[in-house]
C-alpha cells in the first residue's frame, strides 16, 4: 500500500486525506496545533458558541460528496442571505430568490428589477465559462486546457469581463451607488480590492443567488467534525501538536517528511500550509519567496466576538453596515495599511439560526472589519480605535447603546491570525486578486520538478474560501490517481 503524508489539517488537508484514502492509500496528517480545521474553528465562552472563521457555506455538494450518507449533516438554505444597512437609512435584504431580491432592490432603490436579473444572468455565464478551468481544474497542466470545450470557452473570452475592474463593471450595470457598493463587496470574499480586481469576480454573486447560501444546523465547525470522522473511518491517522520540520529530499527526489527529528517515508506529500511558510521553513527556496513577495497580498481581518445580553430583531444571520466612502476604505487597507475610520462592519449572529449558540434572550455577535496584512503596525492602538469606530457606527445605525450590552468579549487581529493559522502576515487568502493575471500567479497544486509533491489550501490554486479549498483537494487527488494509473 502506498503512503501519503499531509502537512496541515485545514479543510483542504482533511478533504485530500479522505480522497487519497479512498484511492487505497495509507494516509497520515500532521497538524502543528491542538485541533483540526485550520481557520474553521469554534469556541465556547460564558455560555456563547462562536464560529471563529468562515461563516458562509456555499456549494454544499462539495462536502456532501466526501461523506458517507450517515455522516452528512443537516444544513438550511437561507431565505435572506444578507441584510445590508446604508448610512442614509436604506436597508436592503438580499433574498436568495433572485426575483424576490430584484423586487426588493426596485422598491428600495428604484433600479429596475430587470437590471439586477440581467446582472445575475451575466454572473452565471461567467461562472459557466470559468468554473471548469479556474475552479475545478488545474490550468497549469496544458493537456487539461487543450480540449474542444475549453476552446469554445476561449472564443467567449470577451464575456469574462477581465479588462474591467469589478467596480467599473458594477458602476456600468447600476445607476444607484448603494447597489454598486453592495456588489463591489464580493471582492472582499477573497481579500481583494473591488477597484482593482477584475470584473470576473462578479461570479460570486451567482454562487449565492443562483446556487444558494446555506448554514449548518450546528455551525460551521460541523464541516470539520464530519469530515474528520469520515477520514478516521477510512483509516486516516491525525497527529496533533506534531509540527513538520521539513520536507525530506534526497538527491533531488522526494522521500517524505521529517517530524520531530524522525524520518517519515512517503510516496506522496501534500502541503496544506501557507505557501510562503512552506518555502520559508519546510522546503526553503529563496527564489520562490522573492517571487511571491512581489505579489500584493490579500487583506486580513479584525474580529470582535461579543456576547450580547439581549436580542436584536433588526438583525439577520448575516449583516453588513457599509462605510460612506468605500473607495477610501480600500485605499486605507491596501495603500496605507490601516483600517479606515469609517470601516464597513460585518455582523454574523449564528444564534439567529441556532438559538443554542447563546443563552436565552441573548445573542452571539461575530463582528468583523477588513484589516490590512500585518507589517508591524501598532495593533494595540489600531484595535482600540477601530473598536470605538465600530461601536459608534453600529449605535448610530441601529439606534442602540451597544457598549452596555456586551457581557463577553474576545478579539482576533492579524497578528493572532498569523500566529494561529500560519497565514503569512495574517493575509488570510495568500496573494490578492488585485490584478488581471492574479489567478495565473497563484502557486500550482503540484511541482513538475518534484514528483509526488502536491499543494492544497487557500494560498494556492484555485484560491481561498471553503469551496475553493475543497476543489484543490479534488484536483490533487485526481492527479495522484492519474499518476498511479500511468
Strand order of the largest sheet: 8-7-16-17-18-15-19
Number of strands: 20
Average of pLDDT? 92
Uncertain residue segments: none
| Alpha plus pi helix count | 17
Largest sheet: 7 strands, mixed
Keywords:
486 residues; alpha/beta; five-stranded parallel β-sheet; 20 strands
Could you walk me through the main structural features you see in this protein, from its secondary elements to its overall organization?
- By secondary structure, this protein is an alpha/beta fold.
- The chain is 36% helix and 20% strand.
- The chain is built from 17 helices and 20 strands.
- The protein has helices at residues 11-22, 61-64, 98-109, 113-135, 142-145, 148-154, 166-173, 177-184, 203-209, 221-233, 275-282, 286-293, 326-336, 379-398, 414-421, 438-441, 466-485; strands at 3-7, 26-30, 42-45, 48-51, 57-58, 75-77, 80-85, 91-95, 213-216, 237-239, 244-250, 253-259, 262-265, 268-271, 300-308, 318-321, 345-348, 363-371, 406-412, 453-455.
- Strands 8-7-16-17-18-15-19 form a seven-stranded mixed beta sheet. Strands 10-2-1-14-20 form a five-stranded parallel beta sheet, with helices on one face. Strands 5-9-6 form a three-stranded antiparallel beta sheet.
- Helix 1 (11-22) runs parallel beside helix 10.
- It is globular and about 65 Å long.
- The two termini are 17 Å apart.
- The relative contact order is 0.18.
Brief digest:
By secondary structure, this protein is of the alpha/beta class. The chain has helices at 11-22, 61-64, 98-109, 113-135, 142-145, 148-154, 166-173, 177-184, 203-209, 221-233, 275-282, 286-293, 326-336, 379-398, 414-421, 438-441, 466-485; strands at 3-7, 26-30, 42-45, 48-51, 57-58, 75-77, 80-85, 91-95, 213-216, 237-239, 244-250, 253-259, 262-265, 268-271, 300-308, 318-321, 345-348, 363-371, 406-412, 453-455.
Amino acid at each position: 500500500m502506498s503512503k501519503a503524508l499531509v502537512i496541515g489539517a485545514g479543510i483542504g488537508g482533511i478533504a485530500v486525506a479522505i480522497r487519497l484514502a479512498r484511492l487505497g492509500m495509507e494516509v497520515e496528517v500532521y497538524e502543528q496545533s491542538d485541533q483540526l480545521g485550520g481557520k474553521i474553528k469554534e469556541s465556547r465562552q460564558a455560555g456563547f458558541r462562536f464560529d471563529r472563521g468562515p461563516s458562509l457555506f456555499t456549494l454544499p455538494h462539495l462536502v456532501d460528496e466526501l461523506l458517507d450518507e450517515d455522516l452528512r449533516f443537516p444544513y438550511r438554505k437561507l431565505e435572506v442571505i444578507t441584510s445590508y444597512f446604508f448610512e442614509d437609512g436604506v436597508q436592503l435584504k438580499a433574498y436568495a430568490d433572485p426575483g424576490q431580491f430584484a423586487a426588493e432592490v426596485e422598491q428600495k432603490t428604484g433600479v429596475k428589477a430587470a437590471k439586477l436579473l440581467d446582472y445575475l444572468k451575466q454572473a452565471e455565464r461567467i461562472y459557466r465559462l470559468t468554473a471548469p478551468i479556474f475552479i475545478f481544474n488545474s490550468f497549469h497542466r496544458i493537456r487539461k486546457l487543450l480540449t474542444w470545450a475549453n476552446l469554445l470557452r476561449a472564443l467567449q473570452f470577451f464575456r469574462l469581463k477581465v479588462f474591467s475592474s469589478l467596480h467599473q463593471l458594477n458602476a456600468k450595470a447600476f445607476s444607484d451607488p448603494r447597489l454598486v457598493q453592495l456588489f463591489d463587496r464580493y471582492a472582499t470574499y477573497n481579500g481583494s480590492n473591488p477597484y482593482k480586481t477584475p470584473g470576473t469576480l462578479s461570479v460570486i454573486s451567482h454562487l449565492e443567488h443562483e446556487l444558494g447560501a446555506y448554514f449548518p444546523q450546528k455551525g460551521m465547525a460541523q464541516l470539520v467534525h464530519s469530515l474528520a470522522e469520515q477520514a478516521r473511518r477510512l483509516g486516516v491517522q491525525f497527529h496533533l501538536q506534531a509540527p513538520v520540520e521539513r520536507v525530506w529530499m534526497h538527491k533531488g527526489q522526494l522521500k517524505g517528511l521529517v517530524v520531530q527529528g524522525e524520518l517519515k517515508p512517503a510516496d506522496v506529500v501534500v502541503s496544506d500550509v501557507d505557501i510562503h511558510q512552506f518555502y520559508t521553513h519546510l522546503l526553503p527556496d529563496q527564489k520562490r519567496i522573492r517571487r511571491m513577495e512581489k505579489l500584493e497580498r490579500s487583506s486580513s481581518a479584525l474580529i470582535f466576538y461579543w456576547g450580547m445580553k439581549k436580542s436584536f430583531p433588526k438583525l439577520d444571520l448575516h449583516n453588513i453596515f457599509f462605510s460612506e466612502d468605500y473607495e477610501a476604505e480600500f485605499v486605507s487597507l491596501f495603500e496605507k495599511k490601516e483600517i479606515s475610520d469609517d470601516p464597513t462592519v460585518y455582523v454574523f449572529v449564528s444564534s439567529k439560526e441556532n438559538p443554542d449558540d447563546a443563552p436565552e434572550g441573548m445573542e452571539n455577535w461575530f463582528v468583523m472589519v477588513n484589516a490590512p496584512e500585518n507589517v508591524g503596525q501598532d495593533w494595540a492602538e489600531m484595535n482600540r480605535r477601530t473598536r470605538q469606530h465600530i461601536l459608534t457606527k453600529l449605535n448610530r445605525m441601529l439606534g442602540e447603546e451597544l457598549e452596555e450590552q456586551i457581557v463577553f468579549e474576545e478579539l482576533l487581529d492579524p497578528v493572532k491570525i498569523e500566529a494561529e493559522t500560519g497565514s503569512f502576515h495574517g493575509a488570510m487568502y495568500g496573494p490578492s486578486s488585485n490584478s488581471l493575471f492574479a489567478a495565473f500567479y497563484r502557486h500550482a497544486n503540484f511541482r513538475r520538478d518534484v514528483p509526488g509533491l502536491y499543494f492544497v489550501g487557500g494560498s494556492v490554486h484555485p484560491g481561498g474560501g471553503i469551496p475553493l479549498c475543497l476543489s484543490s483537494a479534488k484536483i490533487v487527488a485526481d492527479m495522484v490517481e492519474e499518476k498511479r494509473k500511468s
